Amino acid sequence: NDSQTIILDVVNPVFTLQQIKDGTNVHIVGMVRDNVTYSGNTGVSRNGRITRLYITLDDTSGTYTFSDCLEFPTLLETDWHVPLKLGVEFASALKTSDSIEVNLPEDPGDPVPTDLTEPSILIPTGPEPSVPAEISDDSSKTKIVYVTRLKPGTYTVTANIFLKKEDTKLPMNPHLTSGVFPPKDPVSNNATLIVAEDGTAKVIIPITITVMSLNSISGLNIINMEKDASGAIKSLTINLGRLDNPGNIITKRCNVSVTLSELAQSISGFGPDHNWPATFELALAGVPTVQVETTADANNPQTGDDTPLAAYTALLLVSLGCMGCLAFRRKRRGA
């Protein structure tokens, strides 16, 4: 039985691949899995990931979509069911051997490890990330899943935007959300979270730092801002989108333009104007959640989360494609 086989190393440990199954014109004939524990910042972990795939192709279309994929992004600490695609450029193939035999690895058994650790949240309160649970599947295009979302309402939450001293070379981590001197520590219960009936959320954050003024900020989905008479930003409203299985903490990187006060300039020895990277951090511990039944596309099972999954999926595709592919005619094991 002649067919083309791809041996593909999956090298990305940030988006660990837990499960992958055949597509309409592509088949998984073997895989290698390691026994490393991959964990996030709060202790949620998965044991093992797929590190190598042996794939046979039914045609030479060059584009292949797999089904029933399960990924675990360690930084987001929740399982994803995002379909993966494989792109193959047959014209770029370089012959390295006359051999047509492929030594497949021993069958690893059930492709989903049976010893997945239960989510272990070190923060004692707040919603625990949950895995979307598939409860039914129709014959063709859609399926019903449960997701955890924030309960509609208005809540007082903790949100901080801060600069890291490693980036700024300042002697502390200035928090734009702190009004004390020095503003080196995070503040608590300073922001307002508003969750709509459809699960979309926005957070209003006061900017209270006194040793510098915030001129602009990028990298966050800002839908409103308030400024004082001098033009410095005093309040930000950030659109969080629909948060499916959000966990306890949302962290995003952004960039800020700031002007240091004369006091800050004298302490730091820096000039007034700077553009620095910053971190946005929102704590959701204590915000109630609800389980929501929703319909997902069987071939693209995103459930309405406005988080930029496309960017993360692209990284997953890179993890599948960043190593060279070897194409063979496969000889069946034992034939």
Report what the structure shows.
There is one protein chain. This protein is mainly β. Helices cover 7% and strands 43% of the residues. The chain has 3 helices and 21 strands. It has helices at residues 165-168, 262-268, 309-321, and strands spanning 4-9, 15-21, 26-33, 37-39, 45-47, 50-57, 63-65, 67-73, 85-87, 133-137, 142-150, 153-162, 191-195, 200-206, 212-218, 222-227, 233-242, 249-260, 273-283, 289-297, 326-329. The protein has an 8-stranded antiparallel sheet with strand order 15-18-19-12-13-14-17-16. Strands 3-6-1-21 form a 4-stranded antiparallel sheet, with helices on one face. Strand 10 and strand 11 form a beta hairpin. The longest helix is centred in the last third of the chain and has 13 residues, at 309-321. The chain is elongated, with a radius of gyration of 24 Å. The termini are close together. Residues 109-139, 301-319 and 321-335 have low confidence and may be disordered.
List keywords for this structure.
four-stranded antiparallel β-sheet, eight-stranded antiparallel β-sheet, 3 helices, elongated, disordered C terminus, mainly beta, 335 residues, 7% helix
- What's the total number of strands? 21
Helix content: under 10%
SS element count, helices: 3
**Low-confidence sequence ranges:** 109-139, 301-319, 321-335
Overall pLDDT score: 78
Oligomer kind:
single chain
Widest sheet, order of strands: 15-18-19-12-13-14-17-16
- Largest sheet report: 8 strands, antiparallel
The secondary-structure element order is: EEEEEEEEEEEEHEEEEEEHEEHE
The Cα radius of gyration reads: 24 Å
Structural class based on helices, strands and sheet pairing: mainly beta
User: Gap between N and C termini, in Å?
Assistant: 10 Å
Tell the overall outline.
Answer: elongated
> Which percent range describes the beta-strand content?
35-45%
